[in-house]
Amino acid sequence: MSMDSSIPFALLLALLIPILLHVVIRRKYSSYNLPPGSLGFPVIGQTISLLRALHSNTDYQWCQDRIEKYGAVSKMSLFGSPTALLAGPAANHFVFSNQDLIFTETKAINALVGRSILTLSGEELKQVRGALHGYLRPEMVTKYMRKMDEEVRRHIDLNWVGHKTVTTMVKAMLSIPVNIPFTKFNKGLNASRRIRKVLRQIARDMEGALQQGYSSSADDFFTYMLVLRSKGTHSLTVEDIVDNSIVLLAAGYETSSVLITFLIRCLANEPDIFGKITDEQEEIARSKGPNEPLTWMMMKYTWKVALETLRTISPIFGSFRTAIKDIEYRGYHIPKGWQVFHAQSITHLDGKFFNDPIKFDPTRFDNQSLIPPYCFVPFGGGPSMCPGNEFARTETLVAMHYLVRQFRWKLCCKEEGYRKDPLPTPKCSDTA
């Protein structure tokens, strides 16, 4: 076939594929009332379009365009799976409380984290969620406060003190799950294997020490989970525990680092807010004894600023769940095996729920009971509330306590923005 004849053939194929896919879908789900929308090209679907929107920080508008075109429920294909986009507070409530939707994220994340709280379902999910809630309950977080305090001060002394500039940046979880060398997915898999190898050895060492009676403390995650297993609380293998530790590492570091990064960015642009936070933290420092650990309960204004940061720039742009059986929402059928996608920004930046939503205003959280249910969901909601929300609050406030009392800073960029890759990442178009 010559080059001249192959071009029309390729164009014809490009036109026929969506038509054939549409016919197949209609036959397969002929008895279903599927949401409006299109699945697009096989495997790719709307993935590239969404990733482009994330990189250009226009994902909120991307979602709004679909909502205006199709309504609060629509179908598409993301990361290789047919997907239903659900929008609004009622959708948030439906997603967080529906036991027939399991938190599976994308195929890429499943390959990276294995059998963890993100991918388990049924009784195993209940066991793991219960164990994590116990490990991260407020009393346990209070025990970790002194260690957090030490680590934050050590990090500041090492990376901030004496430095004229500080780079704050966060860098596979959102990628097309094709394992080709040098792709983001391939690099993520390789990193996951290296991390898993180290953690597996630590877990087995602790298992051996526990069996020989050498370990008496259950403060670390591995020992805690192994002790619970010996009591019959769960039946996870060591490999399963390692998988969940990877999720804890990623969730505990990445999301909190995003929040702290954008708190720093916010305070550089808001001197009045910076002053109020500093006054609060200085008062806490004066009232605290020299060996007394910090407590976040006194940092009320600082946490309001953190909440407003989470509202305007959510560390997690959205989440995916998978239907484990056919479900129905607003008269539309979502078949078993389909993904359900929802994005926090849809309600966080909606003027119906937050007046002048683009404005940064921590006083919105003076009375949180005035915020309609399931409109502000940075940590999820209902039975799907993130078990690490108190841990995230604590490590964020401890970090800000020392930063605002020791430093003043300004942004190095004349025009500073950010993109999502998939976490929000600062970008600098020009240096001052």
UniProtKB/TrEMBL annotation:
CDD domains: CYP90-like
Record keywords, A-Z: Heme, Iron, Membrane, Metal-binding, Transmembrane, Transmembrane helix
Originating organism: Oryza meridionalis
Molecular functions per Gene Ontology: heme binding; iron ion binding; monooxygenase activity; oxidoreductase activity, acting on paired donors, with incorporation or reduction of molecular oxygen
Pfam families: p450
SUPFAM superfamilies according to UniProt: Cytochrome P450
Gene3D superfamilies: Cytochrome P450
Cofactor or coenzyme needed: heme
Name listed for the protein in its UniProt record: Cytochrome P450
Residues noted as binding heme in the record, renumbered to the chain: C386
BP term (GO), one: sterol metabolic process
InterPro entries: Cyt_P450 (IPR001128), Cyt_P450_E_grp-I (IPR002401), Cyt_P450_sf (IPR036396)
